[in-house]
UniProtKB/TrEMBL annotation:
Limits of the HTH luxR-type domain: 136-201
Domain Response regulatory, first and last residues per copy: 6-120
Keywords: DNA-binding, Phosphoprotein, Transcription, Transcription regulation
SMART domains xref list: HTH_LUXR, REC
Organism expressing this protein natively: Acetobacter sacchari
NCBIfam families: PRK09390.1
Any Pfam family: GerE
Superkingdom of the source species: Bacteria
Modified residues (4-aspartylphosphate): D55
Gene3D superfamilies: 3.40.50.2300, Winged helix-like DNA-binding domain superfamily/Winged helix DNA-binding domain
Keyword Transcription: yes
InterPro entries for this protein: CheY-like_superfamily, Sig_transdc_resp-reg_C-effctor, Sig_transdc_resp-reg_receiver, Tscrpt_reg_LuxR_C, WH-like_DNA-bd_sf
Protein name: Response regulator
């Protein structure tokens, strides 16, 4: 890990941010906490390397707004969004706006540490990313038409019920398609599935 890389933890819940900071420091990362996105943005000019962990819902500037502002500022800081199950559509929007990952609550230590490690290592992956994008494009092309329709609904942040209503099939059938998608795409989580799809330029427009 680059010694100048700091993990910036942003959450209006003091207990949550201090708990995350403790976990990160105990695992060898440098961490800095912020009680709001506004507080973090106030010191953004001083930030050079690292990544951001932010809650999606906060007073003032929320996680989605923060992702957009970081993109507009030109700061290449990977952002990991933490979200409750009901806020998954917001998290998907954040990924479309430039967030690297989202993690649903409750999450375990292994999941958050893995996401941080990946975010801190994402700087020099252009060749590998291009190769991976090609593989992902092939996987998506191999999906059936119905599976691609379900995938598009998931990437748009729609619930199983809404996708089922739009496609005229049952929510239980959507669950089966969703499980098949995860297997065929070799995705371990919904966030990874979304990230894969956004990697494919033909389907992320």
């Amino acid at each position: 890990m680059n010694p100048n890389s700091i993990v910036h933890v942003i959450d209006d819940d003091e207990a949550v941010r201090e708990s995350l900071a403790f976990l990160l420091v105990a695992s060898g990362h440098a961490a800095q906490t912020h009680g709001s996105a506004d507080e973090f943005l106030a010191i953004l000019k001083e930030v050079e390397r690292g990544c951001v962990i932010t809650d999606i819902r906060m007073p003032g500037v929320d996680g989605l707004d923060l992702v957009c502002r970081l993109r507009e500022s030109g700061k290449a800081l990977p952002v990991i969004v933490i979200t409750g199950h009901a806020d998954v559509p917001l998290a998907v929007q954040a990924m479309k706006a430039g967030a690297r990952d989202f993690i649903e609550k409750p999450f375990d230590d292994h999941t958050i540490l893995g996401a941080v490690t990946s975010a801190l290592q994402c700087g020099d992956e252009s060749d590998a990313e291009r190769a991976r994008a090609h593989v992902i494009g092939q996987r998506i092309s191999a999906l059936t038409r119905r599976e691609q329709q379900v995938l598009r609904g998931l990437v748009d942040g729609q619930s199983n019920k809404l996708i089922a209503r739009e496609l005229g099939i049952s929510p239980r059938t959507i669950e089966i398609y969703r499980a098949n998608l995860m297997t065929k795409m070799e995705a371990r989580s919904l966030s990874e599935l979304v990230r894969m799809t956004l990697t494919d330029p033909e389907r992320s427009r």
